[in-house]
Design brief:
The chain has 508 residues and is mainly alpha-helical. Helices cover 73% and strands 4% of the residues. It contains 17 helices and six strands. The strands form two sheets. It has a four-stranded antiparallel sheet with strand order 2-4-5-6, with no helix packed on it. The protein is globular. One of its GO terms (molecular function) is monocarboxylic acid transmembrane transporter activity. It comes from Pinctada imbricata. This is Major facilitator superfamily (MFS) profile domain-containing protein.
């Protein structure tokens, strides 16, 4: 009996020990789950930092368009350099994640956006024939940065820590002040008004209306030093330049008579008309008619922000571009770049392999930009069509990479990801300028950048939520690929509309 009792006691002690071990294991599992949840929450919180930076870099486009129209490109770029440098430097002294949201996400992101907007406007305003070449060469620095910047950051973090890294990076960013001083506005607002009026005038049937004094005071042909020949009757005056004639009082309307215009450099610098059959006999001699020029000058419409905005959004192609491409593309544009390393590690590849994928994408992007610069310089390219093809093929490759899990396939996708980014990121500003023209480009690009920024802020956290719900990154990449394809078709529609309008104009 004693043995039985001893055995029973031992068994009870073993059961108690097993229960204690199970309780300890459960507590450890709960602690691990809590730690994982905390890590996920921290990852969600930190993911907002690059999202805010990227979003602000685009979202400030609309305010920048007003500042550029008011102060010019150079002051805007210098201000952006100061914001960027100050934001990065102040990030080295933060004590909380919320402060980093402000210093890096908002302040530094705003500065980067001001610089990006200034550079984009400068290229599209300065260059006409070689605009594509200039855009590809100017943005090639993005590819160089994606190759070497991660390596530099790792070295700086290992040596100085993350605070010292922010100080070093702010020093690098301060060099943009010198670069910003090299920018200047090529076209002032007054000349832009004249050019716009000239374009409107040349598209209409015109005649010359000139107020002159009495017939007896008209000088003869011998006394006139400057002679202008007019031989157009009821068709556009392609030979007239509005810059030369607007101040002299020649206004173009809807009927034409032939003759010779004599310019007498006299006291009032007026123009007179002599026709082949003699001087005009039907000109009014009243003083009211002599005030025609002054009244017409006062009635010239002035450009305003509201009228320009109305002109931008009344453009069907711009609406298609904004709704079908800007909203869609920027919602998912950063997903492949942010989550490709995560996709590789989830498939069992090492962290070094995952990091190498981004380097391959950067090298491919640099090579594509240089190649496109050479090709666009020598051939005429349909910009919206090229953009559409790039988006459609990029979406197809993004979906395909979720079914091809070999290491070679991932590297091939990374290489094409560089090609895709080189085409689409550079060509967006070219598409906008092609749609609205140079006069409305600054305002139109501001609206485009604003919508892009909003989507860039929302997009990455939304993609992360999709990955959490689906339990992997395959669905996230398929979602991004589908959106790219949808946006590509909208760009093709823009190209078709442009081609049809050209054919209609040529027929007429």
């Amino acid at each position: 009996m004693v043995v039985v009792e001893v055995v029973g006691v031992v068994m009870m002690e073993e059961e108690e020990e097993e229960e204690e071990e199970e309780e300890e294991e459960e507590e450890e599992e709960e602690e691990e789950e809590e730690e994982e949840e905390e890590e996920e929450e921290e990852e969600d919180d930190t993911s907002w930092i690059p999202s805010l930076y990227a979003g602000m870099m685009f979202a400030v486009g609309l305010p920048c368009s007003f500042l550029q129209r008011r102060f010019g490109i150079r002051p805007l770029a210098i201000s952006g350099s100061i914001f960027l440098t100050g934001g990065l430097l102040s990030s080295a002294f933060v004590t909380s994640l919320f402060q980093l949201y402000i210093t890096y996400g908002l302040v530094a992101g705003t500065g980067a956006g001001m610089l990006l907007f200034s550079g984009t406007c400068a290229i599209n305003l300065y260059f006409n024939k070689r605009r594509q070449l200039a855009c590809y060469l100017a943005t090639s620095g993005l590819s160089v940065g994606s190759i070497f910047y991660p390596i530099l950051l790792n070295i700086l973090i290992d040596k100085y820590g993350w605070r010292g890294t922010f100080v070093c990076v702010s020093g690098i960013a301060s060099h943009t002040v010198a670069a910003a001083m090299l920018l200047k506005d090529k076209r002032g607002p007054e000349k832009s008004v004249i050019v716009k009026l000239c374009e409107q005038v040349k598209a209409s049937k015109t005649y010359l209306e000139i107020s002159v004094p009495e017939k007896d005071e008209l000088p003869n042909e011998k006394n006139c030093k400057d002679i202008f020949n007019v031989s157009t009757i009821a068709y556009p005056t392609k030979g007239l330049e509005l810059d030369d004639y607007l101040k002299q009082g020649i206004f173009l309307e809807s009927d034409t008579k032939s003759g010779t215009i004599f310019h007498d450099p006299g006291k009032f610098s007026q123009q007179y008309i002599k026709f082949q059959n003699g001087y005009l006999n039907d000109l009014s001699k009243s003083k009211d008619e002599l005030l025609t020029l002054k009244k017409k000058e006062q009635n010239i419409p002035q450009r305003s922000w509201l009228s320009d905005t109305r002109a931008v959004f009344s453009n069907v192609r711009y609406l298609i571009f904004t709704c079908g491409e800007t909203y869609v593309v920027m919602l998912v544009y950063f997903i492949p770049f942010l989550y490709l390393p995560n996709l590789a590690t989830s498939l069992g590849y090492s962290d070094s392999t995952a990091a190498l994928l981004i380097t391959v994408a950067g090298i491919s992007s640099l090579a594509t930009r240089i190649l496109n610069a050479v090709v666009s310089h020598k051939t005429k390219i349909n910009i919206p069509l090229l953009n559409g093809i790039g988006l459609i093929t990029g979406g197809a490759f993004t979906i395909a990479c979720t079914f091809l899990h070999k290491e070679l396939h991932l590297f091939l996708y990374a290489a094409y990801l560089g090609i895709f980014s080189a085409i689409t990121s550079t060509i967006q500003s070219l598409v906008v300028r092609d749609i609205v023209g140079v006069e409305l480009f600054s305002l139109a690009w501001g609206y485009t950048a604003l919508t892009s920024g909003i989507m860039a802020i929302v997009g990455p956290p939304l993609a992360g939520r999709i990955a959490d719900i689906s339990g992997g990154y395959s669905v996230t990449f398929q979602y991004a690929g589908g959106m790219f394809i949808l946006a590509g078709f909208s760009s093709v529609i823009i190209s078709v509309i442009k081609t049809c309008r050209r054919k209609t104009v040529s027929i007429n």
